[in-house]
Automatic annotation (TrEMBL):
Highest taxon of the lineage: Bacteria
Residues with the 4-aspartylphosphate modification: 81, 246
Keyword Amino-acid biosynthesis listed: no
Gene3D superfamilies hit by this protein: 3.40.50.2300
InterPro entries registered for this protein in UniProt: CheY-like_superfamily (IPR011006), Sig_transdc_resp-reg_receiver (IPR001789), ST_Response_Regulator (IPR052048)
Record has Phosphoprotein as a keyword: yes
Source organism per UniProt: Candidatus Wallbacteria bacterium HGW-Wallbacteria-1
UniProt keyword annotations, A-Z: Phosphoprotein
Protein name as it appears in the record: Response regulatory domain-containing protein
Length: 324
């Protein structure tokens, strides 16, 4: 997702129009097993005028939506991940393309599909295209790229929204940039996209750091540093935007890392911290919170558990595309 307000993105926004989307007649379906990513991509779509968006966490759930009589005749576009539980994106697209074209309002071979995935090897792209998709977007996704790829499908006649094409209003030149941004975008849209976050994950278990890094990349975060050495983490924390750390580790503990971070000058002392631990002692957890931990995630945890805590941290701080 991209809610950036830096100069480059403001310039990119001025170059595209709102898509000709009619919320009474048009629906876009987003399929991804990451709820956080679905939330972020919906924000991207909202920026370009797409307001009627349905969500599914895997291909099986999406199939049920696609076949629903109240949905299928309004479905104009599907954004689909590849790696998902129950039914992956490849199988979903193959089944979708096997359905009779007469069942859908959109012309062409059924409904157009854009794959949006962090899996982007040559083999992944070949298999996706062979299954019948209409395009491939690599995560993380920014609004300008999303608009461009959807607009290509519209120009090709593959995807037909039923609304009228309108242009994004130009900001008033008399207003300072800050006021213009506040007047055009929702209050919770902020300066940088989540994809630009730099995250450090610290745990003495390589399996845990790999798992957390995988969850972060599913959300769309590119810059993830995995460390199993807490001593080294102590020197690198200040270079990141979010710290995710275990508590009970050899050498420096999570307590030590948080104490050290909070003792640093701004802005390092304000970097949000998520503690991930099997610690169950209420007093110890309370002590952690007193040091300035933003969220505590108990092991073992699911992807959903992690995403809930991640969104909570971002929302509390009002940063990276999800506001307070």
């Amino acid at each position: 997702m991209s809610n950036t307000l830096n100069g480059a993105n403001m310039e990119a926004k001025s170059e595209f129009s709102i898509l000709p989307f009619d919320p009474l007649n048009d629906i876009v379906l987003v399929i991804d097993d990451s709820r956080a990513f679905r939330t972020l991509i919906k924000r991207n779509l909202a920026e370009i005028g797409v307001s009627a968006v349905l969500e599914a966490e895997d291909g099986l759930a999406a199939t049920a939506l696609v076949l629903h009589p109240a949905i299928r005749h309004r479905l104009r576009l599907i954004l689909c991940d590849i790696i998902m539980p129950v039914m992956d994106g490849y199988e979903f697209v193959r089944r979708l393309k096997a359905l009779p074209a007469s069942e859908f309002s959109c012309p062409g071979r059924n409904i157009p599909v854009l794959v949006v995935s962090s899996e982007h090897s040559e083999a992944d792209v070949r298999e996706a295209m062979a299954s019948g998709v209409n395009g491939f977007i690599v995560k993380p996704v920014d609004t300008a790229t999303l608009f461009k790829r959807i607009n290509i499908l519209i120009e090709q006649g593959v995807c037909r929204f039923t609304g009228e094409k309108t242009h994004r209003p130009k900001p008033s030149p008399t207003l300072p940039e800050k006021e213009t941004v506040a007047s055009v975008l929702p209050r919770d849209v902020v300066v940088r996209p989540v994809s630009e976050m730099k995250v450090i994950v610290v745990d003495d278990s390589p399996a845990v750091t790999r798992l957390l890094a995988m969850y972060l990349r599913k959300i769309g975060i590119v810059f993830v540093q995995e460390l199993n050495d807490s001593e080294r983490a102590m020197d690198l924390m200040a270079e990141n935007d979010l710290i995710i750390t275990d508590i009970m580790m050899p050498g420096k503990s999570g307590f030590d890392l948080v104490r050290h971070l909070r003792s640093q000058p701004e802005p390092a002392s304000s970097i949000p911290v998520m503690a991930v631990s099997s610690l169950r002692d209420i007093d110890k957890i309370a002590e952690l919170m007193s040091y300035g931990i933003d969220e505590y995630l108990a092991k073992p945890f699911s992807q959903t558990d992690f995403e809930e805590k991640f969104i909570s941290v971002i929302r509390k701080r009002g940063i990276f595309g999800i506001g307070r």
